[in-house]
Automatic annotation (TrEMBL):
Coiled coil: none annotated. This is F-box/WD-40 repeat-containing protein. Transmembrane segments: none annotated. Keywords: Repeat, WD repeat. SMART domains: WD40 (SM00320). SUPFAM superfamilies: F-box domain, WD40 repeat-like. Residues 33-67 form the F-box domain.
Length: 426
């Protein structure tokens, strides 16, 4: 029985009536014994297989007791890690995030493959899938486990692909000054939106059913993704909007002028403005953590920034690099670490709460190839804090144009044809 991938619920139900073979004939205690052998990430995958498995893992008292004992043995503690009032789901999530954070500071290796015919400058990673693109008018979807290309989504016109994102059912791309949506299961373009000007659009983010486009005139244009109507045009900056992040209530927009504006999605009113104590600088990228209420950003002089949304004040500002930071991010449930990448090609892990640099990692020049796939494996090097970056060979640290984070892994692209998957805790 495949506990990592599993069978869907309909398949399980189809086995009813097969005496001795149906999964429903297995007792809860036996399920708990089997599940207790898995690690936290495998267990999390099992919870989405079917309702039966979800209930056994998250609601069974025996399951909870087994994992408490497993935690105590591993950590050598006599204290129960959580109270009985906290759900198993929260407990398992905490353990998984602890393991993820621990892995980021441990050993790692890189799996690299040629993914496109032209440069790649954008990547996204969700639910074991990697999306790459921008450069050859193509978005490609990859398996983070097998590195196989699962599908390709071509840009239909001669205009450039500027930005994109994806979810379980669709790929959403910004093509020139238009929005394009492809179904994941059929490569059908559902909708094209037109901004009735020659206005240059620089970035896009969406939260179904609305998409926000950041434009060079400092305005954010909010579109209904399915009707094609522009519901609001909001003046948020004096300079071009360089990056966006969305919450259910707020639009976060960064600008080349060095400010971040917070705008109410429903009313279009500007709620607040965040700025750095360092000037001049331009905000190149940003992300928001609803768990910690922190806003993180990277900027052109190499600073990483953190503001507390509750006070609208800077928490810390760290010169994490001597050059431009192109990408910054963290796992959604992780409120302790932050990954930063930029022009110097060094992957940095920062403490979210203090801005302290925890580790700096680069690739080594030595590599080995997989016989079954055109994948190179490279070892990584953890740099001492006193190492001068400019003394390191450039072929071990190509500029990181974008990064995306998964559990115990990261994907980076470098304005060339290659995708690098960083695997931690191996």
């Amino acid at each position: 029985m495949d506990f990592a991938g599993g069978k869907n619920r309909s398949n399980l139900r189809s086995q009813k009536g097969c005496k001795g073979r149906s999964v429903y004939s297995i007792s809860t205690d036996n399920f708990c014994t089997i599940f207790a052998l898995l690690d936290y990430f495998e267990l999390a995958r099992c919870t989405v297989v079917c309702k039966l498995w979800y209930d056994v893992i998250n609601k069974s008292t025996l399951m909870s007791d087994l994992y408490h004992k497993k935690y105590l043995i591993k950590h050598g503690s006599s204290d129960k890690p959580i109270s009985s009032k906290i759900s198993m789901k929260i407990f398992l999530e905490k353990l998984a995030i602890d393991e993820h954070i621990s892995a980021l500071t441990g050993s790692s290796e890189i799996h690299q493959w040629s993914a496109h015919n032209a440069r790649i400058s954008q990547c996204r990673m969700k639910r074991g899938l990697i999306a790459t693109g921008v450069g050859d008018k193509m978005v490609k979807l990859w398996s983070a486990e097998s590195y196989k290309c699962l599908d390709e989504y071509s840009v239909p016109d001669v205009v450039s692909l500027i930005d994109f994102d994806f979810d379980e059912s669709k790929i959403v791309g910004l093509i020139g000054n238009r929005l394009c949506i492809w179904r994941r299961n059929g490569k059908i373009i559902l909708f094209k939106s037109d901004i009735a000007t020659t206005l240059r659009v620089l970035c896009m983010r969406y939260l179904d059913p609305e998409a926000v486009m950041g434009c060079e005139d400092g305005r954010a244009r909010i579109y209904d993704m399915y009707s094609g109507r522009c519901s609001r045009i909001i003046k948020v900056h004096d300079g071009p909007i360089s990056c966006l992040a969305l919450d259910e209530q707020l639009v976060f927009s960064g600008s080349t002028s060095g400010r971040i504006a917070l705008t109410d999605v429903s009313t279009g009113e500007r709620v607040a403005s965040l700025s750095s104590s360092f000037s001049p600088l331009g905000i190149t990228n940003l992300c928001y953590s609803p768990r910690s209420h922190m806003v993180f950003a990277g900027s052109t002089p190499g600073y990483s920034h953190c503001w507390d949304l509750r006070t609208l004040r800077p928490v810390w500002e760290t010169r994490s690099s001597s050059n431009i930071i192109y990408s910054i991010g963290h796992l959604s449930a992780d409120n302790r670490t932050l990954a930063v990448g930029g022009i110097d090609g060094v992957l940095r892990i920062l403490d979210q709460n203090t801005g302290e640099i925890i580790s700096r990692i680069i690739s080594t020049s030595s590599s080995s190839s997989s016989s079954s796939l055109n994948v190179q494996k490279r070892k990584t090097l953890l740099l001492p804090m006193d190492t001068r970056i400019d003394s390191l060979p450039k072929n071990t640290r190509p500029s990181i144009s974008c990064l995306a984070i998964g559990t115990k892994k990261m994907v980076t692209v470098h304005d060339d044809k290659y995708v690098r998957l960083w695997k931690f805790g191996i």
